[in-house]
Design goal:
- The complex is a heterodimer of chains A (about 500) and B (about 1150).
- With about 500 residues, chain A is mainly α.
- Among the domains of chain A are: about 200 residues, Serine Threonine Protein Phosphatase 5, Tetratricopeptide repeat (Alpha Horseshoe), CATH 1.25.40.390; about 90 residues, no CATH class.
- Chain A has 18 helices and ten strands.
- In chain A, strands 1-5 form a two-stranded antiparallel sheet.
- The model of chain A has no long low-confidence stretch (mean pLDDT about 90).
- Chain B has about 1150 residues and is mainly beta.
- Chain B contains 14 helices and 60 strands.
- At the A-B interface, helix 1, helix 2, helix 4, helix 5 and helix 18 of A face strand 29, strand 31, strand 32, strand 33 and strand 37 of B.
Chain lengths: ~500, ~1150
């Protein structure tokens, strides 16, 4: 009897266990989809493309591009007792472990991977073919944008054109600069063919034909370098002309309108990186504000202040100066007017870059002003520069182009300049028109003026130890460690 | 009449038993006595008990002397119930039993009331002639049919001696054997622990012995009253040790297992049981990662084997493998067993490689019901304040730094805000502002008892630890019920259940520095010239260059931030033991661990964290469901007299599901509603939720075979299936084998007195590690804020989706192979016991978060790659230095040496990694290199300070100034850069251990427990702030001795604002060795005469001090620190940690 009872209970217990309490071992994430089973619908394609755009918000927030292009050039002074790597960019004590170099590399390749995912997965999705082609072209535009940043900072690059789905063959050596540009060019050429001139409604803000053409113009301009006879000058001029001839872009009457939130993706914008106030914002306001400024979330950091030479590049009547800089403010606590200075050693009283500050934001990292990636004034100045180089001196058309920019700024029109005077004028114009917009270092590097400019900017005790090899940043040490196939840039 | 005879004969037997035990009479001489029918045979009592152990799956504890030499009649039929059988068996032998815990019975001498030895006429039997006497009333064997050959010798009656024998806690001990040394004259104590007997005149020494206690010899002298306190024999060989899915006697262990007793667990006020492991067991390194109330500890058993996966041991509480020790009441714990070698841990397979800690909570014992009250109350104070500059010293320093940096003096008297250093009116000691004296208390009531069939233990505990940082605390309320019931002779059921609620307010500590600083960091950085409050009453905040690190007001950080964490938990398990046949038991165990957590966070607009957002609130909540089912079949059998066999088969399954949700809001009109009304926030942020699951299915088997109590073999195997691994590698197999040789039982050691125990052990086995996150083999689609982008006019955020990593479908177990050889030695009747183990542990197929090229679009990927070796020596020594009537002294010493070595990585010879500091811009603090140990700090080498320009001109630092650091140009290329780095320290100790001393004098008890580590270094990130000399923040008082032209320091550089942040170098590495008087306790057991009237069985009062004495050269708050928590890569780093408290407390233990 006892044995029967025991036996029954054990059989019952065990059978209960082997069925009811046998948990499933093939678990996959709850709430998320496996990468292998996603990418089936046009919504999935759209999500993949969106993710590719999303990386731009990191690339163009605060320090990623702006710090190397200002501090390592002659436009910005870092907060002197702050981040040592930022100071190293400024003093050119650059080493391969510099985190700014690492960040540039990391987010760009993340963006490239997101584009490669689109290019790998979307073609297999059954969906509207026109839309599909557009998505692929958008991804190529973005991939070209990232590679263009990378090639200018680092030179030869590992050229990744396919999605990484396994750990095999991930140690890719660097391809020559020529091959990188070949990819950039082919990506942009496909983009300019496929992408529409304009978008409406919910699609505004995506890459357009004009953006692709404009970027291509910038690529050619960069490739022309400092070589007077370069064939790229003509190509740059031609592409810029194509953009101008589209007839859909124009300058805002007031420089200030460029940065107004209400003018997002407006007439002057070929492409911009969009942020939403306090929803998906940036930290521009807090970083560039004078240290402790009580007008921005978390008070100002004073991370980088404009140099005296940048300030001096603006003539007194330049309408861009009051838009670009904060020179005084009223303290809300006591209604006192605080006047800022370009030369004070106190970072709390320093004049600050101000055009991207969104004072409606309440959250640190909630700034809602777009980052102007490429504006029509850029196209005009590319056109003017390239045309002058092609024509061995400025033509009337070149003067027209640069003077459109100058006139809006309230500056007198230029005339009667030599080829080299005109080049100088273009670079000065670019410096003030695009201050803190991520152009300066690239402009100095491509025109081989970086060393002179850096050595000339010595305010706040800067005594840079810049060497000719510093026209390229070091390949991040972490990357060299993880990928033995990489060679380091000379000098690092 | 019959009864009288029975009693008489039984009492004779008792004496016979003593006699034999004293003189070690060979058993054989007792054998050839009787066989009256074919149904009845003779068996030694010892063998009979062994049979019962096997048959009922129980253990008997007894003193050999009590049992040896006794024989019983065997017969065909015996009662089914163990209790009846035992009674039948023991009663006639003047023995009784007591069930002391589940499955464990103590065999004791019968109580005095039943014991005719009480008679004033002692009987002594001549051993040679001691025959077998049939226990009466068993089979109705005619007693008179057997001849009684007992030579009774009358001894002169001289003295009557009496007294009381008490336990270490002062309770009366019944059943203690009291013998005149060298004779067989003796008695046993009664229920109150009292005895009385007459002894011969020449008797000099009385011997007191009792199971589980150390034998004690006391000189008689002229005394007529002899009270004795016995000391527990915590290392008794008959002690039962809990191992996975069963128990074994300590003497039968083949593996390396350490046991921590209840006394050691309760010696120090601890929040969680892992803290009780510290310094108590060889090879177990415990590091409190945060000293905050409710902080956690990192536990390393035999070193760190894993680089990216978990290194914490598996905790099994009453059979339930689980985590979150802070919500388990350590006051309920009876013992902790630490399984260390592969033979012991392989039964836990894939979760065994970091060692296993088996936690057994107290269960009711049959017998008298008791009520235990245990309370303590104490005061905690900051163990150490870091000496800092005061206001005028600070102002001088700032002026000097600014002048040296090419600027002008700040404190120049030019305005009210910039007075001269001598005219400063504010001098705030920020450490005093945020630290406080804080109470700690714990109160517990335990009700326990039961009868032979039903036993219970019910306890309630309240633990309340206020933190020494303002506003921080941890409180816990627990209720435990453990029930056991024998439903039928073949069915036993039991329940273990604990309900707990914990609540804590976490101070902001162990954070990044700079603008994200927590309380301690800001208290060290914020200038002493700043006031706590502005004139308008708001917190003083400062964003001037005097606060270059941008830290917030320390008092604001400690008072304006609320971070409440609640946990409600029920951990319950039920078992049923079914005896299917003789020696065959089936056990099923069902349990669930249900946890609900809640976090309420709010920061007001009074401090920077909340000012930018006008108050910021977060609530999050989680639900964790963890269920377990285990089914085991155990077969135990003794074949012949010599072959002991136990086999175990099992099937277990466990599954876990966690769901979390959180929501944030900011921009509140005022700070009134805090986290209670998120909807009142103007800015509502993206809510989040998530669910994860894991599951395991396991099959296990174990075979124990013992031959002749000399050769012991254990084989175990476990097959684990886990949801965490790739489709190709879901299952893993983990076998182990062990052999032990009880040399002491060899005949050639029979005739010596020196050795009381000698056992050699050897084991080898494989275990695994699966402590990685869930779904890590799979790339899944992430939809997060960082995949969204705003499109449209006006723009609207559109969700995007992107893969979150690279799939690795081959991802499998981390494997751990361990070889162990050990020896257990006992000499002088186990007064000195030594356990030594040497092990080699190799972890391969590491679950290694490998850096992949960023060109893939991802940062890391989890792979099975690399090997790490730990080898080491563990020594445990227990000695009873003095034992006697009133005074005793015993010591427990353990030390361990562990050497760690990385055997291979992901193909690279070395990797730079480690948790740096974003604020300090320090990355890659650690170099992992093949052939080197884990935890090597990597940086520059400071050779000294440049004293003059000549030194600089001849150096690799031509831009330096006198007073700057001189770094070693390690590669001799004439430049100082990142290539000039080498290993500059290691975060793991090479030697660690503990020493406990217990002194007892009458009712007084003094314990002193030392614990320490040596050979390790600490990367003190705090030095980047406190010794940066760049005028950003306040400094350590040491910088008064900084380099100046007139004070040519060779250690501290000059002050200069141009100095900027420092670069990681030997300057930031400090020796982390320490020896600490962790605990010293003086207790007093109140005399029984005093407490009896209050109905008390025992009462103890004590005072105890923790952390009052620490020998260390470390300059931070405490050398026991781990900023990176339990991670294995960056052990031994310190930044902004919660300071360790020293505690003084008084306690009271009452037993009714």
């Amino acid at each position: 009897m006892k044995t029967i009872k025991a036996f029954t209970s054990i059989v019952l217990g065990l059978s209960l266990c082997l069925t009811a309490c046998r948990p499933e071992l093939d678990l996959s994430p709850v709430g998320t989809v496996a990468a292998t089973t996603f990418y089936n619908t046009s919504r999935d394609a759209e999500a993949a493309v969106t993710a590719a755009y999303s990386v731009l918000r990191t690339v163009y927030d605060a320090e990623n591009i702006v710090t190397p292009t200002t501090v390592a050039a002659d436009d910005g002074v870092p907060f002197l007792t702050g981040n040592a790597d930022r100071r190293a960019l400024w003093s050119y004590n650059l080493v391969s472990t510099n985190t700014f170099s690492l960040n540039v590399w990391q987010v760009a390749y993340q963006g490239i991977q997101r584009s490669n995912v689109v290019l790998a997965r979307v073609p297999g999705i059954e969906m509207d073919e026109t839309l599909k082609k557009r998505y692929l072209a958008e991804a190529k535009f973005l991939r070209a944008l990232h590679y263009f940043n990378l090639v200018r900072f680092f030179g030869a690059l590992p050229l990744i054109t396919t999605e990484t789905t396994s750990l095999d063959d991930v140690q890719v050596p660097r391809s020559p600069v020529e091959q990188v540009y070949a990819l950039i060019e082919s990506d942009l050429k496909e983009a300019e063919e496929v992408l529409p001139q304009r978008y409406t409604g919910a699609n505004v803000g995506r890459a357009t034909q004009g953006a692709a053409k404009g970027l291509l113009a910038k690529v050619y301009l960069t490739r022309a370098g400092n070589v007077a006879a370069s064939p790229y000058w003509a190509q740059a001029a031609a592409k810029a002309k194509e953009v101008i001839d589209l007839g859909i872009y124009d300058l805002w009457a007031n420089y200030a309108d460029v940065y107004e939130i209400r003018n997002r993706n407006g007439r002057e914008s070929l492409f911009e990186v969009v942020y939403l106030t306090d929803v998906a914002g940036n930290t521009q306001s807090t970083h560039w504000a004078p240290r402790g400024l009580p007008l921005v979330p978390a008070n100002g950091y004073g991370t980088i202040r404009p140099t005296q030479s940048l300030w001096a590049s603006f003539s007194a009547q330049d309408r861009r100066r009051p838009v670009s800089f904060l020179t005084a403010y009223t303290n809300p606590a006591n209604q006192q007017l605080v006047t800022l200075s370009i030369s004070t050693t106190d970072p709390a009283l320093a004049i600050a870059n101000w055009k991207l500050a969104d004072l409606t934001s309440r959250i640190l990292g909630g700034g809602g002003k777009s980052f102007p990636y490429m504006r029509f004034s850029d196209i005009l100045l590319i056109y003017a520069e390239a045309l002058s180089e092609v024509s061995n001196g400025p033509t009337a058309e070149a003067y027209t182009a640069i003077n459109r920019v100058r006139t809006r700024a309230g500056l007198p029109a230029l005339q009667n300049l030599t080829r080299s005077q005109f080049k100088d004028a273009i670079l000065l114009e670019r410096r003030v028109e695009f201050s803190f917009e991520g152009h300066r270092w690239f402009d100095l590097a491509r025109t081989e003026r970086l060393l002179d400019a850096v050595n000339a900017e010595t305010s706040f005790g800067r005594s840079p130890t810049i060497r000719p090899t510093n026209v390229l940043l070091p390949i991040p040490q972490r990357e060299v460690d993880a990928n033995p196939a990489l060679t380091q840039n000379p000098g690092y | 009449m019959f009864r009288l005879i029975q009693v008489f004969l039984a009492s004779l037997w008792l004496v016979v038993g003593f006699t034999h035990s004293v003189l070690s009479q060979p058993l054989a001489s007792l054998k050839p006595i009787m066989a009256t029918s074919n149904q009845v045979g003779v068996k030694t009592l010892k063998a009979a008990l062994k049979d019962l152990e096997v048959q009922y799956g129980v253990f008997f504890l007894y003193e050999n002397k009590l049992i040896e030499g006794k024989v019983i009649l065997t017969y065909a039929h015996r009662e089914n119930r163990l209790s009846k059988t035992l009674t039948q068996l023991l009663e006639p032998l003047a023995l009784r039993y007591e069930k002391i815990k589940q499955d464990t019975y103590a065999i004791l001498a019968a109580k005095k009331e039943d014991n005719p030895v009480k008679s004033t006429r002692p009987a002594a039997l001549l051993p040679e002639s001691a025959p077998y006497t049939a226990p009466p009333a068993l089979q109705g064997v005619s007693l008179t049919s057997q001849p009684l050959k007992v030579n009774v010798v009358n001894l002169p009656v001289q003295t009557t001696i009496q007294g009381r024998v008490v336990s270490e806690t002062g309770e009366g001990l019944p059943g203690v054997t009291v013998l005149v040394k060298g004779t067989s004259t003796g008695t046993v104590t009664d229920a109150k622990g009292e005895y009385s007997m007459t002894i011969p005149d020449e008797a000099k020494i009385l011997v007191f012995s009792f199971v589980g206690y150390l034998k004690q010899e006391v000189a008689v002298g002229n005394k007529t009253t002899l009270n004795v306190q016995l000391q527990p024999d915590t290392k008794s060989l008959d002690e039962v040790v809990v191992v996975g899915y069963g128990t074994v006697k300590k003497s039968d262990l083949t593996g390396s297992v350490s046991k921590i007793s209840e006394a050691a667990i309760k010696a120090t006020p601890i929040v969680a049981l892992d803290r009780a492991l510290q310094g108590r067991a060889p090879g177990v390194l415990v590091t409190q990662t945060s000293a905050r109330p409710g902080g956690v500890a990192a536990v390393r058993i035999r070193g760190a084997g894993s680089i990216s996966a978990g290194n914490e041991p598996l905790y099994v509480i009453d059979g339930f493998p689980t985590t979150d020790l802070n919500s388990i009441n350590p006051g309920d714990i009876e013992s902790l067993e630490i399984l260390k070698d592969a033979s012991a841990t392989a039964i836990y397979g894939s979760r065994g490689s970091n060692g296993v800690v088996i936690v057994t909570t107290k269960r009711g014992k049959a017998g008298q019901s008791s009520v235990d009250v245990e309370s303590y109350y104490g005061v905690q104070n900051n163990r150490r304040k870091i000496p800092l500059l005061n206001a005028s010293q600070y102002a001088d320093f700032i002026n000097e730094a600014r002048l040296n940096g090419g600027g002008t003096a700040y404190f120049d008297g030019s305005s009210a805000a910039r007075p001269l250093p001598t005219a400063l009116t504010t001098d705030t000691d920020w450490q005093n502002e945020v630290f406080r004296s804080a109470p700690i208390q714990s109160h517990q009531i335990t009700l326990s008892g039961g009868e032979s069939k039903t036993r219970y233990a019910i306890s309630g505990n309240y633990y309340d630890q206020q933190g020494i940082v303002q506003n921080s605390y941890f409180k816990r309320y627990t209720l435990r019920t453990n029930l056991d019931r024998e439903v039928a002779s073949w069915l036993k059921v039991g329940l273990s259940m604990q309900a707990a609620h914990t609540r804590s307010n976490a101070a902001r500590t162990e954070t990044e520095g700079g603008a994200n600083s927590g309380v301690t960091n800001s208290a060290l950085n914020f200038a002493p010239v700043f006031p706590v409050y502005q004139p308008d009453g708001r917190f003083y905040r400062d964003l001037s260059p005097l606060n270059g690190n941008n830290v917030d007001n320390p008092v604001g950080l400690s008072s304006q931030l609320t971070d409440l964490n609640f946990t409600s938990r029920v951990l319950a398990s039920f078992f049923a033991d079914v005896t299917l046949a003789k020696g065959l038991t089936f056990r099923t165990n069902w349990g669930a661990d249900l946890i609900g957590t809640r976090r309420n966070f709010y920061v007001t607009r009074q401090i920077g964290l909340g000012a930018g957002t006008n108050g910021s609130a977060l609530i999050s909540s989680g639900q964790y469901i963890n269920w377990l089912n285990e089914n085991t079949l155990t077969y135990s059998r003794t074949l012949g007299e010599k072959h002991n066999l136990t086999a175990l088969l099992g099937y277990t399954s466990q599954a876990f599901r966690q769901e979390d949700v959180s929501a944030l809001a900011a921009n509140f009109i005022d700070d009134f509603g805090q986290y209670n009304n998120l909807g009142a926030g103007t800015t509502l942020q993206r809510p989040s939720s998530g669910t994860v699951e894991w599951a395991m299915i396991s099959y296990l088997a174990r075979l124990n075979y013992g031959f002749s109590d000399r050769y012991l073999f254990t084989l175990t195997a476990r097959q684990d299936g886990s949801s965490r691994f790739g489709p190709a590698r879901k299952y893993g197999f983990f076998p182990s084998g062990a052999f032990a040789w009880r040399v002491i039982n060899e005949p050639f050691l029979k005739n010596q007195k020196l050795l009381s125990d000698l056992k050699l052990r050897a084991s080898y086995g494989l275990t695994g590690n699966q402590e990685i996150g869930n779904y890590r083999f799979l790339s899944s689609i992430a939809v997060t804020a960082s995949t969204a982008y705003p499109f449209g006019a006006p723009p609207v955020q559109l969700n995007g989706a992107a893969p979150n990593g690279i799939s690795n479908l081959e991802l499998g177990w981390e494997k751990n192979a361990q070889a162990d050889i050990g020896v257990d030695i006992g000499v002088f009747n186990n007064r000195i016991q030594l356990t030594a183990d040497y092990y080699v542990k190799t972890t391969s197929d590491l679950l290694f978060n490998v850096n992949v090229p960023l060109t893939t679009g991802y940062g890391t990927s989890l792979r099975n790659i690399g090997r790490v070796e730990n080898r080491g020596l563990e020594l445990g020594l227990n000695t009873i230095n003095v034992t006697g009537g009133n005074f005793s002294w015993s010591s427990e010493i353990n030390v361990a040496f562990n050497r760690n070595k990385v055997l291979s990585l992901d193909g690279r010879p070395a990797i730079l990694t480690g948790d740096g500091s974003t604020h300090l811009n320090v990355q890659n603090i650690v170099q992992l290199a093949v052939g080197e140990p884990l935890g090597n700090f990597y940086g520059r080498v400071v050779e000294g300070i440049f004293q003059n320009q000549t030194e600089i001109d001849g150096s690799a630092q031509i831009t330096a100034r006198p007073g700057d650091f001189r770094f070693a140009d390690l590669n001799g290329d004439g430049q100082i850069n990142d290539v000039d780095r080498q290993v500059i320290g290691n975060g793991y100790p090479s030697l660690f251990g503990g020493i406990n001393n217990t002194f007892r004098y009458k009712g007084l008890e003094l314990t002193a427990f030392f614990q320490g580590v040596t050979g390790n270094d600490i990367l003190n990130f705090g030095r980047f702030d406190l010794y940066n000399l760049n005028g950003n923040n306040n400094q350590s008082a040491d910088v008064l001795n900084r380099w100046t032209p007139t004070n040519p320091s060779t250690v501290l550089p000059r002050a200069t604002t141009a100095g900027g942040q420092r670069i990681l170098s030997t300057f930031h590495i400090e020796d982390g060795s320490y020896l600490r008087l962790k605990n010293i306790t003086l207790g007093y057991n109140l005399p029984r005469t005093l407490i009896a009237r209050a109905g008390l069985q025992s009462a103890k009062v004590y005072v105890s001090a923790q952390n009052y004495l620490t020998f260390t050269n470390y300059s931070g708050y405490d050398p026991e620190v781990s900023r990176s928590g339990a991670g294995s890569i960056s052990q031994g780093t310190d930044y902004g940690g919660y300071p360790t408290a020293k505690t003084l407390l008084v306690g009271l233990n009452l037993k009714f």
